[in-house]
Design goal:
Blueprint lengths: L1 H13 L1 H21 L13 E7 L3 H13 L5 H13 L2 H9 L8 E5 L2 H9 L5 E5 L3 H11 L8 E4 L5 H27 L22 H13 L1 H16 L2 H7 L4 H31 L7 H32 L3 H18 L10 H8 L2 H14 L3 H25 L8
Parallel strand pairs: 1-2, 1-3
Antiparallel strand pairs: 3-4
Helix pairs in contact: 1-12, 2-9, 2-12, 3-4, 3-7, 7-8, 9-12, 9-14, 9-16, 10-12, 10-13, 10-14, 12-13, 13-16, 13-17, 14-15, 14-16, 16-17
Keywords: Cell membrane, Membrane, Transmembrane, Transmembrane helix
GO molecular function: ABC-type transporter activity
Subcellular location: Cell membrane
Length: about 425
C-alpha cells in the first residue's frame, strides 16, 4: 500500500495545473473576498460609511401650519382639535427623518448635508455624495394627512444613489424602509386606539454578543478551504480513470495484491493531501493576513482535530468517486463533480456567504455535507474554543464519511471487467 500511496502523491506533485487549483486559487480568492468584504463581517462601519445629501423642497413650518388650519376647520371638539394640532407639530415626518439620520447612533455611518436639488444632483454626478434623499413639495402635508386622518396616498420620499449595487445603498434603503414602516405602524395604532401620539423612530447598531465577530478573512479562509478540499476527490478520481485507461488497474488485479489496497491507497493519499492543503492555507492566511491571532497550542490543536476529521471524510469521498469511476469506466464522474457538484455543495455548505435567512431545509442539507459541517465546526471553535461544541459537527462529518466509505466498498470492482 505504501507504493500506491507514494505513487498517488508523486502523480499529483507532477500535475502543476491541479496544484494551482488546490493551493493558489483558494488563496487568491481569500485575498480578494477578504479585502473587498472586510468590515461587513467584523462589524467595522468603515466599509459602509456614506455621505448623503438631503433636499427639502418645502417649508416644513408652513406645511404644519396648513394642516393645523385644516384641523381647526373640521368642527371637532376643542380638546380633540388641540390634541391633533399638537400631534401635527410633534409628528412632522420631515423632522423625524432628519432626527433619525442625524442620530448619534448613526453618526459613525451616515453624514448628512442639506443641499438644493441642483447642487445635490451635481454632487451625485461627481460622486462626492453616495445618495440624495429628496423631500418633494407636499411631503409633510400628505404624510400628516395619512398619519392623523388615515387619508390614502401619503407622502413619498425620493432616493437617488450613485451605485445601486453597493452595500451602502442596501443599508440606506433598509433604514428608510424601517422608518416608513415604523411611522405607518405607530400612526395606525394611534388612530385605532383614539390617541393622537407622535411616532418615535430611532436608529443605531447594537452588538448582541460579547465575543469578537468573525472577520471577512476568517470567513473566507475557512469557506474557501473547505470548498477546495473537495477538488482533491475529483483529482484522485481523474488519476484513477487515467490509470484504468493505461491498464494499470488491470495489472494490479492480475497481480497477487488485493485490489482493495489500491482503493485504500487512494483514500489515504487524498486525506494526506487535504491535510497538507489545509495546513498551508490556514498557515499562510495567518502569516500574511493575521487571520488567526491566537498563538496557543490549544487553539491550533482544535483546528488540527477538525482538519484531520475533514481530511478523512474527503478521503472516503475520494474512494467513493474512484469506485464509481472504475465501475463506469468513464471520466464523467470527476468531470461532473468538479464542474458542478462542488459548487452546489459549497453553496449549501455556506462557503460563499452565510446561510442566515435562507430556507431552513437548505441550512439542514448544508449541515450534512462534509464541507458544511466542517465550516460549522471551525466557526464554533473560532467563536468559543470549547471541545464540547465540536462533538456534534464532527459526528456529522464522521457519519457522512462512513456512508461514503460503505458505498465505495460496495461499488468498487474487484474481479473481472466492471463487476
Amino acid at each position: 500500500m505504501n507504493a500506491f500511496l507514494v505513487k498517488d502523491i508523486m502523480l499529483l506533485l507532477r500535475d502543476r495545473s491541479e496544484l494551482l487549483i488546490l493551493l493558489a486559487m483558494p488563496f487568491l480568492l481569500i485575498a480578494i473576498l477578504g479585502f473587498s468584504l472586510r468590515g461587513i463581517f467584523s462589524g467595522d462601519l468603515e466599509a459602509l460609511e456614506m455621505d448623503i445629501a438631503l433636499v427639502a423642497e418645502e417649508d416644513e413650518a408652513q406645511a404644519v401650519a396648513s394642516i393645523q388650519n385644516e384641523i381647526g376647520q373640521m368642527g371637532l371638539p376643542p380638546g380633540q382639535v388641540q390634541a391633533l394640532k399638537q400631534a401635527a407639530q410633534s409628528a412632522s415626518p420631515q423632522k423625524m427623518l432628519i432626527s433619525l439620520l442625524e442620530d448619534e447612533n448613526l453618526s459613525e455611518l451616515i453624514t448628512v448635508e442639506r443641499m438644493a436639488r441642483a447642487q445635490a444632483q451635481e454632487s451625485l454626478d461627481e460622486e462626492t455624495v453616495d445618495a440624495v434623499i429628496t423631500l418633494p413639495e407636499g411631503f409633510t402635508e400628505d404624510s400628516l394627512r395619512n398619519m392623523l386622518f388615515g387619508s390614502s396616498g401619503g407622502g413619498k420620499l425620493e432616493l437617488l444613489v450613485a451605485d445601486l449595487s453597493s452595500p451602502q445603498t442596501d443599508v440606506l434603503h433598509s433604514i428608510l424602509q424601517e422608518f416608513v414602516r415604523t411611522v405607518n405602524f405607530e400612526a395606525s395604532i394611534s388612530r385605532l386606539s383614539g390617541r393622537e401620539a407622535a411616532a418615535e423612530v430611532s436608529g443605531g447598531i447594537e452588538t448582541i454578543t460579547a465575543r469578537q465577530p468573525i472577520t471577512s478573512f476568517q470567513y473566507y479562509t475557512v469557506g474557501m478551504a473547505v470548498m477546495f478540499v473537495l477538488f482533491v476527490g475529483s483529482t484522485i478520481a481523474g488519476q484513477a480513470n487515467l490509470e484504468q485507461k493505461q491498464m494499470v488497474f488491470d495489472r494490479i488485479r492480475l497481480s497477487d495484491r488485493p485490489p482493495l489496497l489500491y482503493l485504500t491507497g487512494k483514500a489515504i493519499a487524498a486525506a494526506a493531501i487535504v491535510t497538507v492543503q489545509l495546513a498551508l492555507l490556514f498557515g499562510l492566511s495567518a502569516l500574511l493576513f493575521q487571520t488567526f491571532a491566537a498563538d496557543s497550542w490549544a487553539f491550533w490543536s482544535g483546528i488540527a482535530i477538525i482538519s484531520i476529521t475533514l481530511a478523512l471524510s474527503v478521503g472516503c469521498l475520494a474512494a467513493l468517486m474512484v469506485a464509481i469511476t472504475l465501475r463506469l469506466e468513464s471520466d464523467a464522474v470527476p468531470a461532473i463533480f468538479s464542474g458542478g457538484v462542488i459548487s452546489l455543495m459549497a453553496f449549501v455548505g455556506g462557503s460563499f456567504m452565510p446561510l442566515d435567512g435562507m430556507p431552513e431545509m437548505l441550512w439542514a442539507i448544508g449541515n450534512w455535507t462534509p464541507n458544511g459541517a466542517a465550516l460549522s465546526a471551525y466557526f464554533s471553535w473560532l467563536l468559543e474554543p470549547d471541545f464540547g461544541q465540536l462533538w456534534e459537527p464532527l459526528m456529522r462529518i464522521a457519519i457522512v464519511a462512513a456512508v461514503f466509505l460503505s458505498l465505495a466498498l460496495a461499488l468498487f470492482p474487484r474481479k473481472g471487467g466492471t463487476a
